[in-house]
Amino acid sequence: MSDQTTDVGAAGPAEATQPPSDSMRLPEIYAKAVSLTEELAKLSANSPEYKAQQAEALKLLDTAAAMIDQVRLFSGNEDFSEHSTDSLKYLLVFAIRADLLSRQYPSVDDPDRDTKRIGILSASKGMFEEYLERCGDLGLGDGKPDELAPGARPDREAKMAQLREQMDLEKKLKELAQQLADCKASKKPIDEDLERAHLLTTLQTWLAKSKGQLGSLQQELSMLEQMAAHRRANPAVGGAGADVGAQADSRTRAPAQPPTVITKEMISEMVRTGQPINRADFKLITQGYGPIGAPTMTLQELADKEVAEAMERSQRQAAAEAERAQIDPDSEEAIDLETYRLRHQDEEFRDHVRRGDGNRYNMG
Fold it and tell me: Measuring CA to CA, which residue among 133, 218, 136, 212 is closest to residue 169?
């Protein structure tokens, strides 16, 4: 291990409320940035406190990344086994910074929010790739993101395998964190092997998260770039972030007309004169059936009509049953009548039901 790691030292306690200063060392800056990041999980993403702490944590992580590069803490000709646990943990600066930046969104009222979001996504994507590359240089992972063509969706099996790997790593990390917490609670000396295993599992978990995040960021970035290209090709659509559908509707939609209320007096006048209501004043548009005319009878007249039709049907049915009762069921006449009835039912069924209706197994 190089002598540069001895200049970094172990992480000491840091107060999250103190502003950063030029005299702060890397362990203090790292500890404060991690503390602020953990506190963000307890805050609402839309609150001013969240945005303020997010900006402060990003500033600290940027400073930490610059210090790491300045002292050349990690180099490509080293292996992670040559680094101590205290120095190896600073690899997390690049992953945490990328994740924190990806969760930064411009204001909804900002007309350039899509352009700013594209810049955020591009920067965050570069930081995740940097984390993968730095880990790969030290022998942690292959150092390459999963290749995905622009606009293409990731393979489902590969994505599921990646999620399972991430879940297994998170489960293992939780178990190791509990063991460390038990050691601290019992005031026993912390096992160095346990602490290193926890750190390596944390690095591997962030490797899996980074690859998943890169896919999501690329999809969002492609979508925003397509929207920006569409707006450049169609300037009349509006500025960045404009609702295309709402603007088109506002240009073409006619002003809303007040509804026509049909009163009792209108119906009485229509019944007395026999004249229907003017369709220019009364037009009900239903789904697929066009305009509906004005009513032609009162509710009482409609009820009387339905009762009369029901009585007529009942009388016809009773007469048919009485006629059938007078015929010998074994006679030729009865057989002909039954054959005619069944044939009529079959023809009526064929008239109303098309061939293939109801066959849910022949969908190809």
Answer: 212
Q: Which amino acid is at 193?
A: D
Contact criterion met (CB below 8 Å) for 183 and 191: yes
Taking Cα atoms as reference points, which of 84, 100, 123, 88 lies closest to residue 34?
100
> Is the per-residue pLDDT at 13 higher than 70?
no
Distance, in Å, from the CA atom of 218 to the CA atom of 76, rounded to the nearest integer, reads 27
CA 142 to chain centre: 30
Cα 274 from Cα 265, distance rounded (Å): 14
Give me Rg for the CA atoms of the chain.
Answer: 38
**Distance (Å) of CA 216 to CA 219, 229, 289, 350:** 5, 20, 45, 54
Could you tell me the sign of the dihedral formed by the alpha carbons of 127, 133, 138, 142, in that order? positive
- For the stretch 54-98, pLDDT in tens is 999 999 999 999 999 888 888 878 888 888 888 889 999 999 999
Mean pLDDT throughout 308-321?
Answer: 88
User: CA angle, 121 as apex, 118 and 122 as ends, to 5°?
Assistant: 85
Asked whether 9 and 73 are in contact (CB, 8 A), the reply is no
Q: How far apart are CA 31 and CA 29, in angstroms?
A: 6
Q: How far apart are CA 70 and CA 64, in angstroms?
A: 10
**What global pTM score does this model have?**
0.56
What 3-state DSSP class applies to 150? coil
Q: How many CA atoms lie within 13 A of 324 on its CB side?
A: 13
